[in-house]
From TrEMBL:
Record's function text: Lignin degradation and detoxification of lignin-derived products.
Key words, A-Z: Apoplast, Copper, Glycoprotein, Lignin degradation, Metal-binding, Oxidoreductase, Repeat, Secreted, Signal
Name listed for the protein in its UniProt record: Laccase
EC number: 1.10.3.2
Native organism taxonomy: Eukaryota, Viridiplantae, Streptophyta, Embryophyta, Tracheophyta
GO process annotations (BP): lignin catabolic process
């Protein structure tokens, strides 16, 4: 294993999309940002230098950061932001992980343009547990706003309604031709007939679960969230913000061009974004003016397509890559996910939309929770986050009349190495919606999912405790639930939040605090000397 050094200069750069130009915040002037490549067991040092006028942090999404939350990145959770003119070196070792992850800014909505791929190759000499691809390509899906994204956040916080949706989706930073800007070229993936390719798909969109497909080509899913799965074939992938999916594509046509599409999947009636991003799969030797075979995306409410895809995911669970599902449970938790409306004196209508877990709307602290935990600073957070809904109700049925939530910076405390079963229950508060929940610091197993209310006596009988998919971000179905299990073997403070940025902004977030164990390698490491100060 080796030590790899990267330098991330945070700089502003003009970018033209949808036939108009605006300055965006980037890493090294690139959009999407640079791909970070490492091998399992490598140590990676990334020096982030902030040359812009906004505060910055970078999160290495899905990297477990064992005992090393100082390198995790979410602002005010594990570190204070890197202020203008300052720098910070993220220093971490990749342990027991290989596959596709990604990195992104983790402060307000800066990740709209500050993101890139993180490719972890297996240890030298260790093959993939699937047929070797001829070539690999990173394919990052995203969103594009014509307006200033910061203005969209303020709107989300102040208004009584949902903020503006994006103006387009993107594939590797480009929307492709759109009705309003037919001249713009999309991303092109070059292939040779008869060869096999691996696409490393990442959903970096701020607020949209997406479908992905390629005309006339099947996709073989081999990995999600940097964990191997039992390979299966599908026409369409569904991928939530935060998730990654590796697929094999056989270039089994002789020639031609084939459309690649990324299109929105959502059940929420309040969003109206219909813009599909397009790219091209191009067989070498084909004239570039050849008409591309069309890919028809599923309709945006195609829940069965999403359900079929999700239920096909299984851990590989081989001898080399066993699924270590916790079988005994120390903490059995149920978290409701809801939207709500709270009074707000500075808001347009005297109230604003909020979001909550177990009716708690998370207040961001003014210093990092990890520092407060490490140095025993009182008054920054409490550790009384409710493990179950304070007042149980019919979560997906008739809703209580009161949409108000309670604010707090409340954490849930876990003993080192204790095991957790967490049921994430969507509710019909305001509207049922899909929620991609992301847990920092851990991978978890998805042992069950269903529609309606979770039934604590009947549903666990159907749990898959043998080969459930292992991941770091899970799509909680609209009007349904999902059950996950993990072992709290990583001391520190770990954020959990909806990866729809608008919901996070509204307060759909909380954190776990995991105490140190008694063994020599069971405690949080001390902070690095260059850790930014608030
Ligand atoms: Cu990819 Cu806390 O985020």
């Amino acid at each position: 294993c080796m030590v790899r050094h990267y330098k991330f200069n945070i700089v502003t750069k003009d970018a033209t999309r949808l036939c108009s130009t605006k300055p965006i915040v980037t890493v090294n002037g690139k959009f999407p940002g640079p791909t970070l490549v490492a091998r399992e067991d490598d140590t990676v040092l990334i020096k982030v230098v902030n040359h812009v006028k906004d505060n910055v942090t970078i999160h290495w999404h899905g990297i477990r950061q064992l005992r090393n939350g100082w390198a995790d990145g979410p602002a005010y959770i594990t570190q204070c932001p890197i202020q203008p003119g300052q720098s910070y070196v993220y220093n971490f070792t990749i342990t027991g992980q290989r596959g596709t992850l990604w990195w992104h800014a983790h402060i307000v909505w800066l990740r709209a343009t500050v993101y890139g791929a993180l490719v972890i190759l297996p240890k030298r000499g260790v093959p993939y547990p699937f047929p070797k691809p001829h070539k690999e390509a990173v394919v990052i899906l995203g969103e594009w706003w014509k307006s200033d994204v910061a203005a969209v956040i303020n709107e989300a916080l102040k208004s009584g309604s949902a903020p503006n949706v994006s103006d387009a989706h993107t594939i590797n930073g480009r929307p492709g031709p759109t009705p309003s800007c037919p001249s713009q070229r999309g991303y092109t993936l070059q292939v040779q007939a008869g060869k096999r390719y691996m696409l490393r798909l990442i959903n970096a969109a701020l607020n949209e679960e997406l479908f992905f497909k390629i005309a006339d080509h099947q996709l073989t899913v081999v990995e999600v969230d940097a964990t191997y799965v039992k390979p299966f074939k599908t026409e369409t992938i569904v991928i939530t913000p935060g998730q990654t999916t590796n697929v094999l594509v056989e270039a089994d046509r002789l020639t031609g061009q084939y459309m690649v599409v990324a299109s929105p999947f959502m059940d929420a009636p309040i969003l109206v974004d219909n813009v599909t991003a397009t790219a091209t799969l191009h067989y070498s030797g084909t004239l570039s003016n050849t008409a591309a075979a069309l890919a028809i995306p599923p309709p945006k409410n195609a829940t069965p397509v999403a359900t079929n895809f999700t239920s096909a995911l299984r851990s590989l669970n081989s001898k080399e890559y066993p699924a270590l599902v916790p079988l005994e449970i120390d903490h059995s938790l149920l978290f409701t996910i809801s939207l709500g409306v709270n009074p707000c004196s500075t808001c347009v209508n005297g109230s604003h939309v909020v979001a909550a877990i177990n009716n708690v709307t998370f207040d961001m602290p003014r210093m990092s929770l990890l520092q407060a935990h490490f140095s025993n600073i009182r008054g920054v957070f409490t550790d009384d986050f409710p493990g179950n809904p304070p007042i149980p109700y019919n979560y997906t049925g008739t809703q209580p009349a009161n949409f108000n939530t309670n604010n707090g910076t409340r954490l849930y405390r876990l003993a080192y190495n204790s095991t957790v079963q967490l049921v994430l229950q969507d509710t019909g508060m305001i509207a049922p919606e899909n929620h991609p929940l992301h847990l920092h610091g851990f991978n978890f197993f998805e042992v069950g999912r269903g529609l309606g209310n979770f039934n604590p006596t009947k549903d666990p009988e159907k749990f898959n405790l043998v080969d459930p998919v292992e991941r770091n971000t899970i799509g909680v179905p609209a009007g349904g639930w999902t059950a996950i299990r993990f072992r709290a073997d990583n001391p520190g403070v770990w954020f959990m939040h909806c990866h729809l940025e608008v919901h996070t902004t509204w307060g759909l977030k909380m954190a776990f605090v995991v105490d140190n164990g008694k063994g020599p390698n069971e405690s949080l490491l001390p902070p690095p000397s260059d850790l930014p100060k608030c």
